[in-house]
Amino acid sequence: MEAEEEARRAKEAGNDAYRKLFLETAVDHYTRGALLDPRDISFLTNRAAAYLLMGKHKECVRDCDDALERGRELRADKKLIARALSRKASALLKLAACAGDYAPAIRALRQSLAEHHSEETLAKLEEAESARKELEEQERLDREAADHHRGKGNEFFKQKKYHEAAMHYTQAMKMNPKDPRLFSNRAQCHIYLGALPQGLEDADKCIELDPTYLKGYVRKAKVQFLMENYENALETYLEGLRCDPNNLEVLDELRRCEACIKRPNGGDVELEDLKEMLKLYLEHVQRRSANSVVAPRYPCNNEDIDESSAEGLCSAESYAKANEMLIQVKVLGTKKTFWRLSDETTRISRKLALILRNHHFVGKCLTAPLQVSNVWIGSSGCVKLRGVSFTDKHFGIKCVRDDYKDLSRVLLALIRISSWDITKFPWDYKKFLALLPPDYKEFLTLLKRDTLTMNDEFLVVNNSALLPMTNRTEVFLMLYDRIVTYLGREPAGREKKKRILSRLPYKNDWLDTAIANEQIKQWVVNVKKQYEVTQLDQLRLNRNVRSHMHHYNDDNIEEILYCEWPELLMDMVKMLHVEGELEGTDIKNKFG
User: Fold this and answer.
1) Closest CA to 47 of 25, 68, 74
2) Which of 325, 335, 324 lies closest to 563, judged by CA?
3) Rounded mean pLDDT, 572-590
4) Can you tell me the distance from the alpha carbon of 437 to that of 415, in angstroms, rounded to the nearest whole number?
5) Which of the chain's ends, N or C, has fewer CB atoms near its CB within 10 Å?
6) Whole-number mean pLDDT of the chain?
């Protein structure tokens, strides 16, 4: 009983230290409690939580695994088992360096849900699966873009333009740093350029990435031979024979090494010893090859060319020059015109925001400011980043804000490239901003906000400014129901509803605007219950018009309503977010 009481006090002290973020102290208390009461696995899960905040992710995983093993032996509460699995997943997500690393985290989250269902865990699983899918797609396109540069490098190599070839291989490495062929090819360029130390470094990296890739050994041995390290070159060729025991090129090079070693002062190893070693080695690898030979991930060929390309992928700058991102439309029912963004532009904006948010979700941010040149757009609709990297070093809200500020700058630059011809009109920043629709200007302002929080990221990626025009009616009707019907049921909800309505725009002139528009006017005058100049009636009019015209499949009505009241849906979304109600809607699935 005394040990249990001490364990309880240790847990309370640990929890108190954890709340105050005295994490080292908390770890000490939880460690002591685990020793006093080894049957209580919450000491391990609590210590894992502390390690997670400290950035000691491997220690967190270890504690969670220990808690799971001990908990299952002791038939612990399923909630504790689920908590350990969920916490383990959080640490694994932090450790994830590529899409493949997400698999164990996702598996742990699914196991956690099987033990005990939790909306928080379910949301974490959905975010992880979305992030993995995004990274898988990005890694696939990175490989394609890298292969495109590798192909260019090969073309320059054939023309004996080794410096240009090496530059393309270097560019490809930034996009796919795990492809050993790139290091092998650049090593060969360094050899021809006489940069032997660099060639040796690239060859070593090639072998490190794929020990079964013969050309890595050939490149390394060639550098060693040119440096007159004949014994080392011979040993490297022997290692390479494991990949292809009957390779004639390697066997010929071995004979050259033997000949050089045979020269006076060529080396300390006796030629007869080398011949005997080679004979025994070849007999050994040939016996092994009769049964099985490890196949290299990248089979060698004479030209070392893979025809994969990034066809259909273009730079964002090229896309902006070829497509209208900001379009002028007539406001039906009036003589006015209105500038709005194309649906493709809003989709690109959201995809870029999602890429950042998915990395922020696992505690990573950009290592350098985002540039227009980093954005690539595919003909199939994909949007990817090139030449960028993410890190968890110094991750925090400041890094998150900086990422979004850079995104705001990039989006503005793309729209300017697409919409403003500086050869015809002198650049005028104020006039350009005046062309942007109010909701998109508000979106860009949100990205640049110094008070942006992690919670605001949901508003960033689910911003009404990024909705396709065809989906706005469905979203409006959903949010109308949330504000007017759902929040009107309980006293606390009615207070939220009152605050939201009081902050909606167009307080005094929305009815005048409706009557002035011939397309909307019919829905104002031909009603049994006349509209009053209240915010609730403003929503009622918009709902009635949308409901009727949506029923009649009038595709123009949404654009008319957007052009007349572009800030209405924006403020509905913003206020629901402020009141903590936006995530309770299905808005995240309304962007197409």
Assistant:
1) 25
2) 335
3) 91
4) 12
5) N
6) 84
Contact 261, 234 (CB under 8 A): yes
d(CA 504, CA 512): 16
Q: Give the alpha-carbon dihedral of 45, 50, 52, 56, to 10 degrees.
A: -110
Long-range contacts of 319-327 (CB under 8 A, 24+ apart): 319/377, 319/414, 320/414, 320/415, 320/417, 320/418, 321/417, 321/418, 323/418, 324/418, 324/419, 325/414, 325/415, 325/418, 325/419, 326/415, 326/418, 326/419, 326/435, 326/436
Cα 584 from Cα 592, distance rounded (Å): 19
- Give mean pLDDT, residues 501-528: 85
Lowest mean pLDDT among 156-170, 381-395, 573-587: 381-395
The CA distance from 323 to 18, in Å, is: 53
CB of 514 closer than 8 Å to CB of 524: yes
Cα gap 63→42, rounded to integer Å = 10
Number of Cβ within 10 Å of residue 136's Cβ equals 14
Grouping H, G, I as helix, E, B as strand and the rest as coil, residue 228 is coil
- Strand-pairing partners, residue 390, are 366
d(CA 512, CA 541): 12
Q: What is the dihedral of CA 434, 440, 445, 446, to 10 degrees?
A: 170
- What would the two tokens of residue 215 be? 């050309």
Is 65 within 8 Å of 59 (Cβ atoms)? no
**Residue 422's pLDDT band (boundaries 50, 70, 90)?**
low
pLDDT above 80: residue 574: yes
Bigger pLDDT: 337 vs 281: 337
Task: Please give the single-letter amino acid code of residue 120.
Answer: E
- Beta strands at 326-330 and 375-378: parallel, antiparallel or unpaired: unpaired
Indicate whether 529 pLDDT > 80. Answer: no
Per-residue pLDDT band for 170 (boundaries 50, 70, 90) equals very high
Strand partners, 11: none
